[in-house]
TrEMBL record:
One of its GO terms (molecular function) is hydrolase activity. Pfam families: Hydrolase (PF00702). SUPFAM superfamilies: HAD-like. The keyword Transport does not apply. It comes from the Bacteria. Keywords: Hydrolase. This is HAD hydrolase.
Length: 233
């Protein structure tokens, strides 16, 4: 039985990976100017992963990681103009239009009449709050929860605050590490909708036992799956 549904935000409700990819491409071009074309994207990725413990997730962390990577790879030779370019690139990411993914609004419109809906997002509070407003999806949700990390403790704390029993809670998201594993661990249910190029996933993860979660191809399949679950109950 499902009584409450929560959705991940980035790359589940709206597209964010495209903006990061475009910014990373601009950073790559800049670094190749200093390194005679020998730059590899893994340098920035390694800095991002290393900085999660300091800055968390999101655009600001990405921007600081670009600057740090540039300083390290150039031995401090990067010009003030190019540092300013990276700062402005980060600001552009923060102000980028929010592109709601296909079928999302129709699904939310259908489900919001039958279920209380919430968003559980990971990252910077201000960044996620402004994207939530710019998305235009606020009318479908009871609340927005933003956490620095999605782990069993964070999910348990949210469910206690809203007086939701884990067994009737469903999480929908595109990240096994953030949206699926922790929810299953506390006794909840999960729907996994893969998104290509998910950021900052660990390289190795153990698969959960089969049957503990369902994988759908796209958001449009969610209402039908929920209806089938209800009829089978």
């Amino acid at each position: 039985m499902v009584e409450y549904i929560a959705f991940d935000a980035d790359n589940t409700l709206w597209r964010s990976e495209t903006c990061f990819s475009e910014a990373q491409a601009q950073f790559r071009v800049l670094m190749q100017q200093y390194l005679n074309g020998s730059y590899d994207d893994r340098y920035l990725k390694e800095t991002e992963l290393r900085n999660i413990q300091h800055y968390g997730y999101g655009v600001k962390s990405f921007g600081l990681s670009m600057i740090e990577t540039a300083l390290e790879l150039t031995g401090g030779r990067i010009s003030p103009e190019h540092i300013r370019f990276l700062v402005n690139l980060t600001k552009e990411l923060l102000a980028a239009p929010v592109e709601v993914l296909p079928e999302v609004e129709a699904v939310l419109d259908e489900l919001s009449g039958d279920y209380p809906l919430m968003v559980i997002a990971k990252g910077d509070l201000l960044d996620q709050e402004t994207k939530f407003v710019r998305s235009g999806l606020g009318e479908y949700f009871r609340c927005l929860e933003v956490v620095s990390e999605k782990d069993p403790f964070s999910y348990s704390r949210i469910l206690r605050r809203h007086r939701i029993r884990p067994e009737v809670f469903l999480m929908v998201g595109n990240s096994l590490r953030s949206d699926i594993w922790p929810v299953l661990e506390i006794g909840g249910q999960a729907v996994y909708i893969p998104s290509p190029g998910a950021r900052n996933e660990p390289l190795q993860m153990d698969e959960p036992k089969p049957g503990l979660y369902v994988q759908l191809e796209h958001m449009g399949q969610l209402p039908e799956w929920l209806e089938a679950r209800l009829l089978a109950a």
